[in-house]
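Action item from last week, closing it out:
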Amino acid sequence: MIIVTGAAGFIGSCLISRLNADNFNYIIAVDDFSNEEKNRNLVGKKIKERVHRDNFFEWLDQNYEEVEFLFHIGARTDTTEFDWSIFERLNINYSKTIWQKCYDYQIPLVYASSAATYGLGEHGYEDSEAIIPLLKPLNPYGDSKNDFDKWVLEQDKKPFFWAGLKFFNVYGPNEYHKGRMASVIFHAFHQIRNSGKMKLFRSHNPDFKDGEQMRDFIYVKDLIEVCSYLMHCRRDSGIYNLGSGKARTFLDLANNTFQALNTPSTIDFVDTPADIRDKYQYFTQASMGKLRSIGYDKPFHTLEEGIHDYVTNYLLTGTYY
């Protein structure tokens, strides 16, 4: 029995597909299941039981002996949300209870952290646990993820195996429901289909030309491969970066999306909104040496490969993974 929280979401639903592909079909899907558009992510997947997130701890107390692994992917991920009480309840306290249950019942755990913890990157993007207390995220979402990481590192009582994964800019199938929080590639696809062109933020930093702001974009299929590896590996507990390890420009992203659509590139630059301009990240790049050092050796999709697969096999047809 494998538990996936955030099961109906973008990453959680892709993870369930990956588990099903390996014939792990005794899946316990945990979410609130109130969003019908989001629930489409679960159509056709092999799931043993759906458990509402509010009832999950009671369920776990009754069924823990059957649980082999727990992936805690569920969280409030809206970076524009500023009601701290929501993050405190869903991202911090809920996660602390999961941690404590996994310790009590000796269930191995992988949980989702975020590259949002790095803030403006003042301390770099090395996943050294020594710098985690020094990090200064730019929004309450990033604060909540970093607060939980800090709390984890202070605990004496730990599951026998655990890993926190700092997801960088994830894109890929099953994000149809995410609206404004969907990946830039998702929005690029729809802008190009609707207007034949794409808007990118102008640079307000003299060190970067327009469109040459850089991010570490990781294809969701690579992310779930790492999750699968850690489930089987179950050693070397710790907090790890999970990006491609290669920063790419927004121009690269846009041009590859135009290419996947066989459409000439037409890009308009617009000012970055003033209210986020001072918190805008111009560069992120995951240091991936730590994950590689524990034996993960599969290559990641290049941005070209990932965008081509995503656009041609999913977005153009409205297909789910």
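Closing note: The CA atoms of residues 64 and 105 lie 7 Å apart.
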